[in-house]
Sequence to fold (280 residues):
Amino acid sequence: MTTAVLDAKGLNCPLPILKAKKALQGVPAGGLLEIYATDPGSVKDFEAFCRQTGNELLASSQDGNVFKFVIKRLR
Amino acid sequence: MGVTPDNALLDELIKRRLDELLPQKLEEKLAELREKKTPSMTIIATKGTLDWAYPPFILASTAAALGWNVSMFFTFYGLNLLKKDISDLKVSPLGNPGMPMKMPFGPDWFRGINWNIPNVIEAGIPGFESLATVLMKQTIHNKGVASIPELRSASIEAGVNLIGCQMTVDLFGFKHDDFIPEVKEYVGAATFLPMARDADVSLFI
Fold:
């Protein structure tokens, strides 16, 4: 299954979350969404997002000033 | 058959056992219901300027993105936010000592300067408000923050209920046609308050 990718670099709260929610709608259950963001607040935001929406945050990493998240759509 | 000594003893034992078991069972059941219930939020939006448009729409769109049920009640100047064209919301620096006034262009050292303009100048120079609005919008755009029309669209898309205050519509002589068709309904406080009561979070902005 191809992983969907969302480039949210340069976008500030709440755009990364809003765009991720929209992107996830196109991901089948069990599929993955890769997100790139530069908003430092997005680290905690995506943790909360996954907890609230029942999806799994598989990875959260940082490379320079770019944050990368991998979310698995559970349902 | 009256209350025999055996029954009285039984009642006492049952009562004692229930007192022991019930609080814990109740706790568990309440926690279970709390887990399952979809969080909900109501927001009362009473302001119509650019700076005050952000909190309600950001909170509403983010909550909706988290899967919450959200209803927004627009009253008084908040009705401004339901107008068809909201690309020209203004912000005023007058009497707004909390507003940072930094130029959104130029070299870094220039951008760092906070221009404390006295109220008398802000009030005296015509067009100052428009200037402040233009600079604020540029600042917002530079930082990759969404515009108000964008946030409103995102909220609508995410299923946020937009509710207008009918009294304010009458008060300021508006017509329903002045506002976007996505407004769910126009009601009064008596209709809105029960919604607020049932919501987990209720905000007044």
Observations:
- Residues 60 and 69 of chain A are 5 Å apart (CA to CA).
- Chain A has a mean pLDDT of 91.
- The helical segments of chain A are 15-25, 42-53.
- The first strand of chain A starts at residue 4 and ends at 8.
